[in-house]
Amino acid sequence: MYISRIKLFIFTVCFLFIAGIFGIQTAASATPDPTEQFRPFIAKVTATLADPDLKTLSKREKSRRVISVVRERFDFREMSKRVIGQYWRDLSPSEQDEFESLFTQLLQYVYVDRIDDYSGQEVEFTQQRIKGQRAEVQTLLVDKQKTIPVAYIMTLRGNEWMAYDVIVEGVSLVRNYMEQFREILRKDGYSGLTDQLRKKIVELEQENKVS
Description:
This protein has 211 residues and is α+β, with helices and mostly antiparallel strands. The protein contains 6 helices and 5 strands. It has helices at residues 2-28, 34-50, 59-70, 76-84, 93-110, 173-208; strands at residues 122-131, 134-142, 147-157, 160-168, 171-172. The chain is globular.
């Protein structure tokens, strides 16, 4: 009986040890794959752009429809935060919300004309890099005339990888706006930047007749 108990004890310890190892491996491998999350998102975006009904809508409605899809996998909060860097910490919560809204509107109106440029281009996923809570998913935008490298920089939010920057042919969207906004913030402060953003948004609304 005593020997049987010892054997049972040893078996139990070994079982728990093995289960612990596999438990650790399962937890480690539980990190979602950014490419596998991003692939259906890109498919949804291209399907939206290819929808014949999209061409019948006004520019305003087109941009709204596309941006609603883009929001599913883009973190505009994180993008806004990185665009103004250290200045973000000095803003009140309401100012942070205000800037995110203005910056998102700016992007929406700046790229509204690009919607009609879509003509069946395909996206090929090439590789990904993961480092902790950050990932880079590299793709190729395949056109009839050329192939354009496009990388998406992402951060892990819970179990979801969310993009906050797009790098096209080596040019970062976030860095591009960061350099533009930095000088305005240095000279005119946050209020000066938001004033300029509002003016630019109004200009784009009038130019594109999306208001």
